[in-house]
Design brief:
Blueprint (H helix, E strand, L loop, with lengths): L1 E4 L20 E8 H5 L5 H20 L3 E7 L2 H12 L4 E4 L4 H9 L3 E3 L8 H8 L7 H12 L3 E2 L2 E2 L32 H9 L17 H15 L23 H6 L4 H13 L5 H25 L28 H13 L4 H15 L3 H11 L5 H12 L16 H7 L20 H12 L1 H4 L6 H8 L4 H17 L3
Parallel strand pairs: 1-2, 1-4, 2-3, 4-5
Antiparallel strand pairs: 6-7
Helix pairs in contact: 2-7, 6-11, 8-10, 10-11, 11-15, 12-13, 13-17, 14-15, 17-19, 17-20
């Protein structure tokens, strides 16, 4: 009998090696690594989501008739070696793991790796896209993906005559104070949930689970249906907005399930595309969401493999500031936007993409936080985190630590952007219009200081050169730099 090794982010019968597995010929081995869970201060909801999903998937496989060896072991390696020693299978088969560490382990123990279909663009396919290109942009990849897979296409042309509707999808929150987006489903805890929580180490951080994150296939499908039917029709226009009174807005919150296999990208995209074709979702909303899944997610996945293992240690801007105490719960902050985002992370292990990029990431970029420390914090803190997710998104997109290989400009902004896209600034003690003085918005100060610190590098970048020249002409440049130094000291001390 063969053994099929299933990792905790491959929890679907339709993925790779499990597709052809049968109870008569295959035994399943799943290893829950205590060392992995205790190795870092993971958010408790991230740890619970991973472990509870694994245990439920094992139960579902048993219900399907499989012999499942679900092992609690100090490490993944020890668990697998123990399984091999006790069962002596004819072969050990695994779907291509989603991390370099697990792939190296598969090679070490002699596992046969089956090509993964968990993403719609395999790295082998991506190589054909990249071949002969002097530069690679996500927009080109996204169009290539749509053409070859047929989403929102009329023949070889995009539906509606244009490839993206970003201009329609960058509206600020409704100025009338309305918040029309329905809250996501919440699940009741059961005995399995309670057992998992009791088993987690004291190193976990954050608020305990409250039912936000489903840990079963049925629960993930329920959340997909909720999003397609009730949220996607209003997804597009305000997808970049932030509201202090609504943590979810129109976001799908499906990334955890896509990342651990409870949902597959083709079924998510098919549901969104079908809703558009049936006239239930406007084109700008359908395109905006499909772009996130078919374009950005698959792009990040492939860059993780294309850039190689040394990419994670990139630090092109020489950022060395330690992770501030506000991020680790050892201090609070008076900055309402940062405080709101960190509160959301603490409460649910999640914040939406603009909070990640333009609040938390923006602060890390402009204040010069060490990119490896910030990447690791994001990896530990978010329920949808994985190495392949966080390394390109943080190192490349958010912190520009790769020197511009992934993003053509640094995503730095002052308080004006946050004011335009949120309701945070109205009741914040800092003034987003000021760059100097004790009440100056730290984002505004740090933005101009960032441009001044890196002017030599960015003045040659056509996407940001005009802003750099404006910074160089500031009459109060010395005062900006002095205030930025004060902001840095307050940030380090947890008093900002």
């Amino acid at each position: 009998m063969r053994s099929v090794w299933v990792l905790g982010d491959q929890l679907h019968r339709g993925i790779g090696a499990l597709t052809a597995a049968r109870p008569e010929t295959d035994r399943i081995v799943i290893v829950e690594s205590a060392g992995k869970i205790a190795s870092r201060p993971w958010h408790v909801q991230r740890a619970h989501f991973i472990v509870a999903s694994m245990r439920r998937f094992a139960l579902s496989l048993r219900e399907d008739g499989f012999d499942v060896d679900y092992r609690l072991a100090p490490t993944l390696r020890e668990g697998l070696l123990g399984h091999l020693a006790e069962t002596n299978p004819d072969a050990l088969v695994v779907t291509e793991p989603n991390s370099r560490t697990a792939r190296n382990l598969a090679v070490e123990i002699g596992a046969e790796q089956v090509r993964s279909n968990q993403f719609l663009c395999h790295p082998d396919d991506f190589a054909s896209f990249a071949e002969g290109r002097r530069s690679m942009k996500m927009e080109d990849f996204y169009r290539w993906q749509r053409r070859r897979l047929g989403y929102l296409m009329d023949g070889d042309e995009p539906v509606g005559g244009q490839w993206n509707f970003d201009a329609d999808n960058r509206k600020p929150p409704p100025r009338d104070g309305s918040s029309p987006w329905p809250a996501p489903p919440v699940a009741e805890a059961d005995d399995l949930d309670r057992d998992v929580l009791a088993s987690l180490p004291s190193t976990c951080t954050g608020a305990a689970p409250s039912g936000t994150w489903a840990t079963s296939r049925d629960g993930a499908l329920e959340r997909l249906t909720h999003f397609i039917e009730r949220v996607l029709p209003m997804f597009g226009p305000h997808e970049d907005a932030m509201l202090s009174g609504n943590w979810h807005l129109a976001h799908s919150m499906l990334s955890p399930y896509l990342n651990n296999g409870l949902l597959l990208p083709d079924e998510v995209l098919g549901a969104a595309h079908g809703a558009f074709r049936e006239g239930r979702v406007p084109l700008n909303s359908a395109e905006g969401f499909i772009r996130q899944v078919l374009g950005w997610r698959e792009w990040v996945w492939n860059l993780y493999w294309a850039y190689g293992p040394n990419y994670a240690s990139s630090n092109a801007l020489g950022a060395v500031r330690p992770l501030p105490p506000a991020f680790t719960g050892r201090a609070s902050t008076r900055m309402r936007c940062v405080g709101a985002a960190l509160h959301d992370v603490d409460q649910r292990g999640w914040a939406h993409h603009i909070q990640r990029l333009m609040v938390l990431g923006n602060l890390a970029l402009t204040s010069g936080i060490d990119p490896q420390q910030f990447t690791r914090w994001m990896w530990d803190s978010f329920v949808d985190a994985a190495e392949w997710v966080m390394v390109p998104n943080v190192i490349g997109m958010s912190l520009h630590a790769d020197g511009g290989r992934m993003a053509t400009k640094p995503y730095a902004s002052g308080g004006a952007y946050i004011d335009r896209m949120s309701d945070y600034c109205a009741s914040c003690p800092y003034d987003r219009t000021k760059r100097t003085g004790d009440d100056a918005c730290p984002f505004t100060t740090l933005y101009w200081d960032f441009l001044l610190r890196h002017s030599e590098q960015f003045v040659r970048n056509p996407r940001i050169a005009a802003q750099v020249r404006s910074a160089e002409r500031l009459a109060d440049a010395a005062a900006v730099r002095a205030r930025a130094a004060d902001v840095g000291r307050l940030l380090d001390a947890g008093r900002l």
